[in-house]
Amino acid sequence: MKQFYGVTLKTPLMLGTAQYPSPAILADAFKASCASVATVSLRRESGHNKSGQEFWSIIRDLKVHILPNTAGCYTVKEAVTTAHMAREIFNTKWIKLEVIGHTDTLQPDVFGLVEAAKILTQDGFEVFPYTTEDLVVADKLLDAGCQVLMPWGAPIGSGQGLNNPQGLRSLRAHFPDIPLVVDAGIGLPSHAAHAMELGYDAVLLNTAVAKAGNPVEMAQAMALAVEAGQAAAIADPMEPRDMAAPSTPVIGKAFLT
Amino acid sequence: MKINVNGKLQKLKSGNLSDALAELGYGNAKIATAVNAAFVPAALRDTYALTEGDQLEILAPMQGG
Fold this sequence. Notes:
The complex is a heterodimer of chains A (257) and B (65). Chain A has 257 residues and is an alpha/beta fold.
């Protein structure tokens, strides 16, 4: 398994911490998912209502790697400042870099993303860029110092699965040694398994588990899916064919007509 | 002195950022700060002088995807 900035993950699942029905369900879902990484964020907090402090105590107790994000940032400056604040709070160099370019699709502003990635890597951050499957952008992110790429499967929170499997497959083929994570768009375990079958190194998801009728059961299903998909990729899947090919031997078939 | 704290105008007696956070009730909370959209590391809060009209952002851990 590839390393993420020198870290080997126990499982190829990164799980978000937002939108769960309750903190207890969040904790139970996390345990059921066997996720190795928790994504977190930063928001305003008042001096009297310290909900962020309670949230942090839950996450800390999960004893997983913490990946803070810059969700909601639309400019390079916002994203860079948020990253610095996250590094201080969470005491990690890891940052899931999001520079959003469009309010409807929440797709990344890849121009701002490359610029922010360059600034942050020069500042000592280990950047996990939320990007598209575009090969040219991927090259520029690597040039900027990123050692991990996180292309979207589909728009954040959409649950559509992998909208461009061929593009994701191409990215995998072009960058065989770079850790790749499908981030966003996963709605079902089959989507997560598909990403892993393409040879991806991990899947990052949130809404699919948090908004399931039973988040804990769905978390377990996702754990099984990424494990199955990873095992399938290692097993070297067969190539699809355009025509049928009998699996039962034809030689020795009785002549009965 | 009036400054804008997380989008709300507040009157503070404190002159530096560290004292302002204590006055606002943050105590030892796990927070990060920015003034006028620029990050202010915790190590600089004692010496960071706030001025009238400053925009102070105080962020804490939150759920995220």
